[in-house]
């Protein structure tokens, strides 16, 4: 049963199934267990125990945080699940089977419900409200039997649903229920007396003494008084949120205790918010009633300067004055008074859980370390789902619903179209899906691709945000996750910097295919500004970068960082590259050097992430990429927002004074446990001997020899593996140059080339003949005249890392401007992947285990992988445009057999002489240079 994944499609306007409603409310906290039941015939015919092969039936147990239900037996699993969901909804007072023919006046139902509340039987029931009734009977003197009206608004779903049907505004402001109760009160007179001024109700006729007796007897077995931690949220934003411990005497009424803490004499004017935080939470805000709660016409009016922005933000409706956040009250559970401590840490966790990246951080249990990834990769490097995060976000912010619409783009018979759910688009519109499969081109792809859009609506069903990604995916789930990731990333931008200029927000929306309704959006999230001020500090300090920006930033990290990074342990030479999966042990401590204080804030014994996706703090990733397996590192980092530290720390009582006294740092220790290379590297090494990279070197060497080449440029040299290998052979080469845009790659290349060139004695150097070695930082799509007219250009396994138009641009620039005598371009042969995957260890794959796997890319950083036909057509056109000839070859496997070489190569030869004069243009930056003439000759820009 797939509970974690999103339901295929949630269509607006369609009545939701019970299961869908349960999902919206409980997300993955709702757990369905289906079991088979075999109808036994033995009971009917005790003498004959012939095993009957009757149809197998299914029964479903639905476990929710507070209770569970078991359905009757059904022929289909589906029906059993729906039935269980239906039963649960009934229990929650949210039944969907309201029969239209017997529709009553909601006011009649309302009054009937109240009559039931004040009945004898109700007092002894398990209904959460009955706890208040029993407690009221223990109240002394005048207060005896008096029940605050506010509790009706929160304890009974039926009442709140009725209220919503009477006044839809209740949806956004549940406190309006109180005014509705007051309106209904006159119809109850005779049995229930209501005091509008005291906001309370009392049964007129006393309960029969035996009932009171049984209640009192039951309560007398109760425990002594209890101490509960709560949090006070002052309405003045300047005042900090503070922890409190309240004492609740066993014989008293808990709301009276909270009332006193709020400066009230008794419970009546205590208002109670809806639950805060998780769906199953009992945490609520308690605050004083003000007129705006009682008069619907005043609903939008904010009282004069008392608005409690933090509390209002948490609850989603306006709250004035100080508020107390506590987890206490009566529940469906048989224990009388439920309570739980709410610490300062709890408060901050709730707060950051309302931000898109905060929810991600919490779900990874790494508030400081984890970051909402800066790119989406279909590879599952995190066990959760972005879709769940969107669900959480919408629930926390009381948004109406989010609608995913999946568009399937079928080729030959795709998955069975789930009737109305899948809209089918014209396949002709698609040229290439995001996974680069030649959709519509090659015959082997016979599966549908999916695109998914998301819309988020307000409670009043106004469209607020819409995301329609252009990419399509082979898996429906990937399409949904991608859309969810895009919306989250966009929202995150706003939450980190709520005063971000509209234009910036819009242009960021363009990048992520997100559009939003400005007015609705700003109205909905208006409180963000006053509450999320703290995001701004991090927003500037470490701005969120997406995709290649992120990589550039990461590359730029090497070598700087302000303070020293201490890396210890022998270099095992297994260091993570882009796309590698790493597993680390880490701990982060708050340290104050001057006082020798050190407090653990966050740690993990096993934390996995993928390099290059931006799923951890930039500095952590930057350090890990400099480490090799089994090494450990220690470094200091700047303080993130205080709220993150407080949410992460186990014990805020020590941390808080430390933090406020200033002068603190975070010390981070990391041990690199494991490095798992991306599939490309693993496959290349596992299957071929010599490895493919070596075979490419040999291919290049062959042509160096053939042309007696003296100069070579490696376009996209990466960490310099080709250049380094060339130094192992005596060749005619005198000058070798590498170009790349990756600082990190260039730094490594400089390191290896430098040590190799300076290690070799002068004698061997001269036999090698290399006079000059140079590394440039620059993009190979841009011309630099210093690389003009070389003998050989190589560009190995690079173009697939660029967008297709960039790859074509590179092809034209290199042939028309750089004009090498020959150019060698290699790129993976997509058709060969089937074979590679067969030999590679099976990568874990969630939902399609049994089906034949469609090909994946060899490395998630690849923007495309071409079939032989695609590569040929690209290279032939390029050659024809630029007066080059081209021939095809490859390495790995056999070019004459299907499916061709593992890695395909195009060899371009210049036909004409190239023009002698070329305009000087220095666009690249020298990163490192070595000359044979001076002995210690490196000039280093590192
Ligand atoms: N040729 C190397 C590296 C291949 S990985 C080898 O065979 O080992 C691809 C490399 O292309 C990366 O180092 C990446 O930084 C580089 N690259 C991608 N786009 C580039 C561009 N526009 N200009 C320069 N280098 C680029
Ligand atoms: Mg590659």
Could you explain the architecture of this structure?
With 942 residues, the chain is of the alpha+beta class. It has 32 helices and 31 strands. The two termini are 54 Å apart. Helix 1 crosses helix 2 and helix 15 packs across helix 16. The strands form 6 sheets. It has a 9-stranded mixed sheet with strand order 28-29-27-26-23-24-25-30-31, with helices on both faces. Strands 7, 8, 9, 10, 11 and 12 form a 6-stranded antiparallel sheet that branches. The protein has a 5-stranded mixed sheet with strand order 14-13-15-16-17. A hairpin with a 4-residue loop joins strand 19 and strand 20. The longest helix has 21 residues. Helices cover 33% and strands 20% of the residues. The chain binds S-adenosyl-L-homocysteine and magnesium ion. Magnesium ion binds next to loops.
Total strands:
31
Distance from N terminus to C terminus (CA atoms, Å) equals 54 Å
Largest sheet: 9 strands, mixed
Structural class by secondary-structure content: alpha+beta
Gyration radius over CA: 34 Å
Outline type: elongated
- What's the tally of helices? 32
Average pLDDT over all residues:
79
Query: Which compounds are bound in this model?
Result: S-adenosyl-L-homocysteine, magnesium ion
**Uncertain stretches of 5 or more adjacent residues:** 1-13, 39-53, 98-102, 298-302, 411-446, 534-552, 554-561, 840-855, 935-942
Q: Into which percentage range does the β-strand content fall?
A: 15-25%
Percent helix, as a range, is: 25-40%
Strand order of the largest sheet: 28-29-27-26-23-24-25-30-31
């Amino acid at each position: 049963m797939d509970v974690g994944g999103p339901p295929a499609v949630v269509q607006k306007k369609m009545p939701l199934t019970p299961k869908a409603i349960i999902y919206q409310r409980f997300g993955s906290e709702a757990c369905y267990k289906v079991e088979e039941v075999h109808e036994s015939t033995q009971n009917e015919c005790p003498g004959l125990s012939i095993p009957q092969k009757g149809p197998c039936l299914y029964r479903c147990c639905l476990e929710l945080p507070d209770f569970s239900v078991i359905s009757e037996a059904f022929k289909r699993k589906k029906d059993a699940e729906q039935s269980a969901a239906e039963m649960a909804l009934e229990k929650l007072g949210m039944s969907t089977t309201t029969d239209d023919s017997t529709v009553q006046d909601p006011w009649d139902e309302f009054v009937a419900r109240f009559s039931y509340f004040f009945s004898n039987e109700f007092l002894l029931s398990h209904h959460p409200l009955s706890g208040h009734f029993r407690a009221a009977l223990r109240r002394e003197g005048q207060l005896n039997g008096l029940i605050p009206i506010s509790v009706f608004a929160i304890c009974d779903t039926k009442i709140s649903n009725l209220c919503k049907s009477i006044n839809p505004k209740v949806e956004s402001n549940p406190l309006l229920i109180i005014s509705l109760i007051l309106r209904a009160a006159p119809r109850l007179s005779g049995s229930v007396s209501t005091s509008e001024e005291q906001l309370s109700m009392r049964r007129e006729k006393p309960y029969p003494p035996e009932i009171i007796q049984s209640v009192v007897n039951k309560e007398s077995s109760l425990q002594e008084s209890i101490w509960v931690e709560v949090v006070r949220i002052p309405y003045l934003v300047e005042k900090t949120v503070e922890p409190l411990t309240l004492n609740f005497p066993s014989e008293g009424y808990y709301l009276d205790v909270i009332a006193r803490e709020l400066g009230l004499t008794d419970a009546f004017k205590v208002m109670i918010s809806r639950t805060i935080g998780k769906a199953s939470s009992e945490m609520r805000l308690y605050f004083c009633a003000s007129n705006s709660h009682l008069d619907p016409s005043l609903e939008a009016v904010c009282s004069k300067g008392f608005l409690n922005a933090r509390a209002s933000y948490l609850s989603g409706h306006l709250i004035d004055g100080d508020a107390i956040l506590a987890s206490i009250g009566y529940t469906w559970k048989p224990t009388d008074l439920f309570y739980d401590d709410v610490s300062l840490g709890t408060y901050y966790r709730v707060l950051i859980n309302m931000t898109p990246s905060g929810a991600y951080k919490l779900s990874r249990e790494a508030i400081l370390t984890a970051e909402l990834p800066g790119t989406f990769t279909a590879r599952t490097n995190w066990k959760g789902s972005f879709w769940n995060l969107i669900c959480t976000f919408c629930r926390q912010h009381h948004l109406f619903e989010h609608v995913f619409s999946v568009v399937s783009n079928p080729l030959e018979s795709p998955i069975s179209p789930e009737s109305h759910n899948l809209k089918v688009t014209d396949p002709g519109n698609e040229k290439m899906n995001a996974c680069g499969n030649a959709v519509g081109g090659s015959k082997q792809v016979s599966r549908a691709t999916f695109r998914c859009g998301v819309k988020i609506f307000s409670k009043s069903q106004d469209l607020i945000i819409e995301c329609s990604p252009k990419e399509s995916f082979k898996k429906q789930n990937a399409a949904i996750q991608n859309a969810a990731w895009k919306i989250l990333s966009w929202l995150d931008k706003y939450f980190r910097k709520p005063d971000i200029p509209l234009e910036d927000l819009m242009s960021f929306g363009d990048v992520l295919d997100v559009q939003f309704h400005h007015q609705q959006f700003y109205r909905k999230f208006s409180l963000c500004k006053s509450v999320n001020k703290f995001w701004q500090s991090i927003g500037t300090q470490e701005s969120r970068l997406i995709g290649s920006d992120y990589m550039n930033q990461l590359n730029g990290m090497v070598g700087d960082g302000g303070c020293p990074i201490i890396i210890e342990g022998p270099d095992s030479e297994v260091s993570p590259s882009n796309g590698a999966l790493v597993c680390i042990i880490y701990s982060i401590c708050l340290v104050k050097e001057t006082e020798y204080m050190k407090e653990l804030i966050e740690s993990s014994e096993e934390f996995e992430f993928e390099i290059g996706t931006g799923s951890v703090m930039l500095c952590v990733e930057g350090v890990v990429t400099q480490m090799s397996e089994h090494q450990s590192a220690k470094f200091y980092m700047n303080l993130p927002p205080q709220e993150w530290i407080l949410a992460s720390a186990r014990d805020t009582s020590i941390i808080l004074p430390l933090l406020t006294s200033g002068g603190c740092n975070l010390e981070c220790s990391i041990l690199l446990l494991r490095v798992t290379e991306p599939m490309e590297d693993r496959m290349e090494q596992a299957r071929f001997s010599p490895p493919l990279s070596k075979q490419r070197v040999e291919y290049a060497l062959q042509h160096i020899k053939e042309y007696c080449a003296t100069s070579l440029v490696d376009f996209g040299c990466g960490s310099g593996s080709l250049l380094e290998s060339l130094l192992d052979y005596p060749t005619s080469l005198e000058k070798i140059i590498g170009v790349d845009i990756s600082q990190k790659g260039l730094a490594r290349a400089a390191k290896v080339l430098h040590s190799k060139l300076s290690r070799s004695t002068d004698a061997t150097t001269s036999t090698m003949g290399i006079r000059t070695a140079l590394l440039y930082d620059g993009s190979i799509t841009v011309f630099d005249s210093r690389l003009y007219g070389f003998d050989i250009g190589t560009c190995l396994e690079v173009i697939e890392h660029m967008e297709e138009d960039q790859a074509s641009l590179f092809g034209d620039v290199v042939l028309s401007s750089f004009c090498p005598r020959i150019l060698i371009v290699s790129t993976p042969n997509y058709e060969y992947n089937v074979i590679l995957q067969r030999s590679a260890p099976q990568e874990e794959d969630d939902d399609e285990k049994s089906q034949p796997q469609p090909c994946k890319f060899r490395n998630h950083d690849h923007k495309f992988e071409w079939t032989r036909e695609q590569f040929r057509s690209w290279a032939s056109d390029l050659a024809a445009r630029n007066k080059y000839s081209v021939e095809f070859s490859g390495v790995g496997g056999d070019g004459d057999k299907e499916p061709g070489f593992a890695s395909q190569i195009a060899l371009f030869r210049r036909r004409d002489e190239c023009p002698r004069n070329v305009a000087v243009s220095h666009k690249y930056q020298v990163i490192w240079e070595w000359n044979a003439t001076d002995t210690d000759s490196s000039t280093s820009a590192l």
